[in-house]
Amino acid sequence: MEARLNTSENPVTSKLAKYIISASKVVHDSALPAVTQELVALRVSQINGCAACVDMHTKDAAHAGETSVRLNLVAVWREATVFTEAERAALELAEQGTRIADAAGGVPDEVWANAAKHYDEAQLGALLSHIALMNTWNRLNVITQQPPMADYQPGQWG
């Protein structure tokens, strides 16, 4: 697959990417556990069908020590027993926030309340921001048909 647009050379999308990367650094440097960040990034990317992000976040998570068993089970996290209750709450919020158009009324109160049981205010802010940013990346990549980067190295994009 060849990308429809070279987003790294386009004057608008390359500038936008710099801002998104800067915003992503805020989340990366937050108290939200790094493993949760990667699981959420992977799940959001799976839902949105973003091959480039699935590839990247699978590699990043593995590099950070995540097991192949857990990575393989992210797509079926509800049935899997390898995730903590906090991770499950984050994955549920990520799914509901990504599929927001599928539910009248948006994200249910019980989904938010469950996440709030496991994460403090700052972590919830980071989780919410991460979900929004991943959806932004996914849409940019899916619309322009960005293929996975075979030579992507973990951490390459900050």
UniProtKB/TrEMBL annotation:
Coiled coil: none
Pfam families in alphabetical order: CMD
Superkingdom assignment: Bacteria
InterPro entries: AhpD-like (IPR029032), AhpD_core (IPR004675), CMD-like (IPR003779)
Domain Carboxymuconolactone decarboxylase-like positions: 25-95
PANTHER family in the record: 4-CARBOXYMUCONOLACTONE DECARBOXYLASE FAMILY PROTEIN (AFU_ORTHOLOGUE AFUA_6G11590) (PTHR34846), BLL7811 PROTEIN (PTHR34846:SF7)
Name this polypeptide is given: AhpD family alkylhydroperoxidase
Organism annotation: Nonomuraea angiospora
